[in-house]
Amino acid sequence: MTQPTTILREHLHTALDLAATGLPVLPLRAGKVPFGNCRACTGNACGGRPNMKTPGACVCSLPCHAWAAATTDRDVIASDAWSRAWLCAAAVAYHPGGAGLTVVDLDNADAITWARKHLPETVTVPTTRGEHWLYLGTMPSANGVRPGVDVKSRMSYARWLGLGTGAMSPLPDAVRALVVKAPAATGPAPQIAVPAGAGECRHRTPAFLERGIAMAEQRITEARSSVHSTVYATFLAVLSTHGRCGCLTEDHIARLFTAAQAKGETARHCTEAWTNARTKLGL
Q1: CA 104/CA 152 separation, integer angstroms
Q2: In angstroms, how far apart are the furthest CA atoms of the chain?
């Protein structure tokens, strides 16, 4: 048996086993990075996340869209298109948020020491340089929440490194707090205006709204510059699509604010951006 064939079978066997337990999987290239989008999906021109059985979703057969390509569909995982990816893959990854999990990625000994002092014990998986601590529950993902610590949950992926040891604990508030930066000044909690709804709902399924919120979180999270303008533009885009039918809830808006605060925005700036976007659209 040739080495590439052996790699294919090992990765495919692992991926199918994980999918059977409810972990959405995807292949990773060397360097622990996902496979890039195909030409048809570049820039999300296809409509976004693949492998979703909802109207308007991308129907690409390749593992496009990074974390969003993760799936538990055995037919997709074992398809010819994905098999070509497994053949040259360096590792198997999974989408923690898609399985209801959060991974605290501790990248060095100092980070592990901090976690042992401040976080409850849970399932621990050794990594090349540190440990993954797995908790039951989801939250926004963020890198560099403190020295040597990343949080991987929604809109992210983690490399599969084995079952680990210990018993799974619920996601603690101490981890949730890592991705929310404190406001620059104290004061009354901002009042978030939720659109009351002024027309018939255009959303075909709840997944349409969920996908829109998830993509908005991702856009904010991946901003590398002009964070203020990115947050405002993202709020404007969400409201222009979902702001007139009454489907947005306080939970949806809180998710957007949390993503913005994780990038350094204050609660006041989030509220101002949200209000300005509503005003722009006449809501």
Answers
A1: 6
A2: 67
Prediction pTM value:
0.65
Collect all residues with Cβ–Cβ distance below 8 Å to 19 and sequence separation of at least 6: 25, 71, 72, 73, 74, 77
Percent above pLDDT 70 for the chain? 84
Rounded to whole angstroms, the Cα distance separating 83 from 9 reads: 9
Q: Each residue of 220-257: pLDDT tens digit?
A: 888 777 788 888 888 888 888 887 777 777 778 888 88
Return the exposure string of 123-152: e unless at least 16 CB atoms fall within 10 Å of the residue's CB, then b.
Answer: bbbeeeebbbbbbebbbbbbeebeebbbbb
69: tokens are 């390509």
Identity at 270, one-letter amino acid code = C
Backbone angles phi, psi at 12, to 5 degrees: -65, -45
